[in-house]
Amino acid sequence: MDIYSEIKNLKGVGPKLEEKLNKCGVFTLLDLLLYFPRDYEFVDGNPEISDISEELKQIISCKVVSFDRDIRTKNGKKLTSINLKYSDTKVMAKWFNQPYIKNNFKIGESYNLMGKYKKVASHLEVINPTIVFRDASDNEILPVYPLKGDITSSVISKLVNSILCSIVVSENLPQYLLEKYNLISLDEAIRNIHFPSTKEKLKDAITRLKFQELFTYSVKLMMLKNHLKKGNCGIKFTMSPELGDLKKALPYELTSAQSRVVREILLDQKSSIPMNRLVQGDVGSGKTVVAFISIFNVYKNGYQAAMMAPTEILASQHYAEAKKLLEGFDIDIELLTGSTPNKEKIRIKEKISSGLPIVVIGTHAIIQEDVNFTNLGLVVTDEQHRFGVEQRSKLINKGKEPDVLVMTATPIPRTLALYLYSDLDVSIIDELPPGRKKIETLFFQENSRQQVYNLALGEIEKGRQVYIVCPLIEEDEDGKLNSVDKIYNELAEGAFKNYNIEKLHGKMAPKDKEYIINRFKEGHLEAIISTTVIEVGVNVPNASVMIIENCERFGLSQLHQLRGRVGRGQYQSYCLLVGNAKNNVTKKRMMIMTESNDGFYIAEQDLKLRGSGEMFGLRQSGDSGLILSDIIEDINILKCASEEAKRILNSSDTKNIKLISEISKNLSRSSKYICFN
Ligand code: ADP
Ligand code: MG
Q1: How far apart are CA 61 and CA 114, in angstroms?
Q2: CB 595: neighbour CB atoms within 10 A?
Q3: Do 509 and 460 belong together in one domain?
Q4: Measuring from atom 15 of ligand 1, which residue has the nearest CA?
Q5: Residue 30: which of 656, 631, 673, 544 has the closest Cα?
Q6: Which pLDDT score, from 0 to 100, does residue 360 have?
Q7: Parallel, antiparallel, or unpaired for β 440-445 and 57-67?
């Protein structure tokens, strides 16, 4: 059986099932083999209390001792508790909003309860367990697949099993690597990730496959870099004589960090090796103008330049700023986003494909298939953490070998940047423009909200403006989190009733969003109640207060980004974090925020506390292809994999060359980073 053949060729897969599998992203037999479980259910006959893991579901046979009376929790949920016993250990089972669950239990009877068991003092606790009618005496590990639609885990298991019965997955790492790192074979790993025979085997399988992912990831980044370095086919730009005039025309002097980074970029532009540079700079360090200067030089050399931002708000803001700064230098600048009217789009696209020099500022719309840059010299992507490796390479493919500049305000600790962006050179703007005051950051418990508003109102009286950020748009069922709607309604009637306030969130039409932002910019609104749509880049120097509701819900880097929306002018600014800091981790996180204004330090702490997957949105976007691995958690595997990849890529051993050519061939074929030969 060919593992690249379509899934419908598998016995038992009819058109209906095929469609369902397609919905899960499974098109070929290989896709199915790489469709890893997201979790496992451990059916453990006699788990020792010490073996019980909080991470995994387990089935435990418990005897009912007594029922507690239902109680209402603070947020209005009904809590049902049953006391049980597992041999001599007390087990407390709790359910939310399922009072009828008691009818399924009888005192003195035993039940097999499946759930995640937590050790609390000397007893076990399990939330929302289900009764299963499977014999709990078998030792078994059942895969739980990430599912879409009405397909079940057992259907997937059956299909995977039938593939594995008829093939052996051939090995694709050299034997010496398996030996050196004590890795099991690819075949064994694939079998055990789907059907682990023991917990140890499952661990071995995960380790092997993580190594595989991170090895392939490293190879891919390095090949991208080598390809660019070897290329020698980049554009050699010259220094425009007008650069000096532009600098003079700027409304401020560049900081020395900005000047240094501009120099590094201009040197790259002069070279025949295509530029591939990451500019890191804390929020407010002035990255935008650095990008504009680079764009200016490319334009004056007769080439086209594109600048991509992650949101329409940001794109329009850059557009306005570019118009202002580059005004008087005879530069053709266009804005292209999803909401550009069709007629306009056609006009702009025609201009782009004509090859005339142009600066196009926009959103993802710029990398759509039907935008044909014919003379692209530079691509700038702002707030890079929103764009993955895949998109980066897609962009590069747009032009012949354009220079690439990526800008990010999510500082990445050097060690990590080395691996995460090993295809990029890095410049750092480590200085803020002069005259900025330190943003005063304070934490408030939920119940001192009035104090927060008083502070904000005081600032408004002085002529300043206020942002209020909430984690949700609309109220959710359990009312735990504050929403834009709720806070807006409260404030419009209450504390802010004498002022003009508006809502802003991602579900609004782009035009409406822009309208609100502009009203705020022009000073017609005293406050906006918003979701994190204002997180990136929005620049309103008169705003001096940032209130963040349910601050414990946000990552530190995200809080830092949000905080960066204030303190952009000459006024003393405040970031007021409102939330619940009950547990120690939250307390620690909020302390980091109130004590530090240093984005690099904060990012490092954030990484330690949360892991990279969340921080860079790698997991969610799937762009990185890292399905099992977390760059921080698995940093040790990444280091080894990356070293080995480098060694193999740089060696002239024919065996290795063959391996690399296999990998590169398969990279294009396989959507994921685990490749087969
Ligand atoms: P970020 O690095 O977060 O993208 P911006 O480029 O938006 O920051 O710049 C933040 C603010 O600082 C803008 O209002 C910009 O005009 C201003 N600015 C940038 N460079 C300087 C400078 N050298 N001196 C004074 N103000 C500057
Ligand atoms: Mg910016």
Answers
A1: 9
A2: 11
A3: yes
A4: 286
A5: 673
A6: 96
A7: unpaired
Q: What is the extent of the structural domain holding 481?
A: 440-596
**Gap between the Cα atoms of 43 and 460, Å rounded:** 60
User: Does one domain contain both 447 and 576?
Assistant: yes
CB-defined site of ligand 1, < 6 Å: 252-255, 258, 281, 283-289, 409, 433, 537, 539, 541, 568
Mutate to test the pocket of ligand 1, among 539, 540, 544, 600 (most ligand atoms within 8 A of CB): 539
- The Cβ of residue 330 has, within 10 Å, a number of other Cβ atoms equal to 9
- Tell me the per-residue pLDDT of 193-250, one tens digit each, with 9 for 90 and over: 999 888 899 999 999 999 988 888 787 777 766 665 665 577 899 999 999 999 999 9
Mutual orientation of helices 635-650 and 199-231 as an angle, nearest 10°? 50
- For residues 81 and 365, what is the distance between their CA atoms, to the nearest angstrom? 53
Residue 618 neighbours by CB under 8 Å, 6+ apart:
388, 612, 624, 626, 631
Q: How many domains does the chain have?
A: 5
Q: Are residues 555 and 657 in the same domain?
A: no
Pick the atom of ligand 1 nearest to 255's CA.
Answer: 23
* Mode of pairing for the β-strands spanning 123-127 and 89-96: parallel
Distance 332 CA to ligand 1 centre (A): 23
| Of residues 441, 462, 463, the one with CA closest to residue 452 | 441
pTM: 0.66
In a domain, 435, yes or no: no
18 Cα–ligand 2 center, Å: 45
DSSP 28: B
Q: Buried (b) or exposed (e) across 104-132, using 16+ Cβ within 10 A?
A: ebeeeeebbbbbbbeeeeebbbbeebeee
CA of 434 to the centre of ligand 2 (A): 17
Q: Which two tokens stand for residue 172?
A: 């694709």
On whether both 27 and 48 belong to a single domain, the answer is no
CA 477 to chain centre: 26
